[in-house]
Amino acid sequence: MSRVLVAEDSTAVRLLLRRRLEMEGHEVIEARDGAEAVEAAVGDESKDPDLVLMDAMMPNVDGAEALERVKEKAPELPVLVVTAMDRLEGSPAWKLADGHLTKPIDFGELFARIDLLTGGRPRPGSPSP
Amino acid sequence: MERSQYLEEVMDRQPGAMIAYTPEFEVVWRNRSAEIAAPSVRPGVNLYDALRPFTNEEKLDRLLLRGEKVMFGAAEGQPVLEWLVHHEKLSNGDEILMAWDPDITDEIVQRRATFSMAAAHELRSPLTALIGFAEILEMEPENLSPAQIEAVTIIRQNAVYLQTLVNDILDLTSNSFGELMLELEPASVVEPIEAAVRSLQESITARDQTVTMDLAAGLPEIEIDPRRVRQMVQNLVQNAHTHNPKGTRIDVSAEVRNDGIAITVADTGRGIPFDPPELAFGSFRHGGAIDFSQMTGSGIGLTVTKRLAELQRGTISVESSPDGSRFEIWLPIDRANAMTRIPPGPA
Q: Do B126 and A10 touch (CB under 8 A)?
């Protein structure tokens, strides 16, 4: 199972993502805005997420800029963008994302995407299947 | 200076672009602003084809076939223009296309639409939380009493309904500024119809209503946006469900008719409170601006459904009596050649 960094400014949605991801057996780290997301993704070695779930619109540093900074330091770290818009637009940074999901979130699709993006890279120390 | 030369110069000094063309779309004349804005739209060429490189087919349909106001840039690096077919034809039947820089017009309308789009997006996060936590509760029904199960089901159903309304509002606002685009593919209407009915089945049964489906065998695949077909059928079924009493029967059917596929949603309810019933679709086709005061509770879904049918070059019609109403969506089998023109009316 994976360690997922959830970057989302809405407390309720962040908690929802935590609950559902934990029910699937994933480990969850939280970030409340873009700046925290960048710090947790590439600044703090103890966090070391396998995947970032990034809200597109966040205060301080917005999703597009956070995505750009994360990919600059860790191009291999998969980032899924979650957006309340119909499509991602307004920034060239969006093409760096490894995919996007729209709100309300289809959890079946989310879990499948996470498995697909992290499947080839089991956490060191995790029991092999 | 001769009079015709003089008038030509007056036209050339207009800041707005003007293009005159025959009913067959052959460009006859343009002023200098048009020449600068869109050099390739010159006399002799087909207007529809000449504009095609600048924008998508949906916008051209709305502009040239349905007389709506749309926005697109005429060339790389140039400002986005507003385009509109003038509703007064020339005496020989030729028509005039005008384009101008929107900065000088209806900024207020645009600001209002931007606001409703932002508001609708803001609503999506709380809706995500509402639906998501209701689903978490429903995952372990053994921990809930029957009354609590009922309560959480109603919360989820209404949150999902609210979500469709938010999506409809977004579609209306984006459509009025021309950003609504179809994802066309050859597909059957069967799956979208079934998905639409399935999504409302539980809610319909809970209100002691029934829904039946009668989809003709061997319906051909046609060029549609399956997600939008589902949305249209869902809106019609939702409408029949919400606005009619207990015991109402809703019949959904689909068959081949008049070179198209007719999808019918009929109910045994009390009919539509509009005379003529077409008023239920809303009446803000012209100019593309949205008049929310024209909308009723059922108006949003029906208005969106009508626009989606038109975008797919189809039609929607309604019949209503005190014994029930009957909506019919018609989608052409040969979309490429289904370019029926709706004459622009007074703006």
A: yes
